[in-house]
């Protein structure tokens, strides 16, 4: 399949400028690799756009913060060689959300796991254990929510393991 940068949709924040073209395709205007419909290609393309396309809606959280992609991963085949294809419902996650996209900082993860690794996440595993303990001990959820500066609905989701369900109570 041939992918032409000029055919990518601009309304999705994808830039077709020369700088991005260099990153995506090594100065070529199109590339044939047969991988454009694979989950790994989609993740790779979104990663590249977030880091290098100022018009991408997420650029302010990635490229503008200085997050970049290691040189090896500017090549799609290298990215797939290192990461493989993701399983169903898995997306690309950086283990250290202040770190770059590189093999030792990335993995395939479920959306719920990624929500726990955001810069604005207010909870950590210890807080989750305490919230569950307090909620199961009968402390009112509103009081717990106020103490942790979170919404009451989040306390309920933590209590019932619908959020941070991977954290054990012990």
Notes on the structure:
The chain is α+β, with helices and mostly antiparallel strands. It folds into two domains: 2-114, no CATH class; 125-159. The protein has seven helices and four strands. Helix 1 runs antiparallel to helix 2 (39-52) and helix 5 crosses helix 7 (152-159). The longest helix is centred in the N-terminal third of the chain and has 14 residues, at 39-52. The radius of gyration is 20 Å and the shape is elongated. The relative contact order is 0.09. Mean pLDDT is 80; it is low at 1-22.
Percent range of helical residues = 25-40%
Shape: elongated
Question: Strand sequence of the main sheet, in spatial order?
Answer: 1-2
Instruction: Give the N-to-C terminal Cα separation.
Output: 51 Å
What's the SSE pattern? Answer: EHEHHEEHHHH
Q: Report the radius of gyration as a whole number of Å.
A: 20 Å
Strand content: 5-15%
Low-confidence stretches: 1-22
Oligomeric state of shown chains: single chain
The total of helices stands at 7
Which class of secondary structure composition applies to the elements?
alpha+beta
Number of strands: 4
Average of per-residue pLDDT values:
80
Specify the biggest β-sheet.
Answer: 2 strands, antiparallel
Number of domains: 2
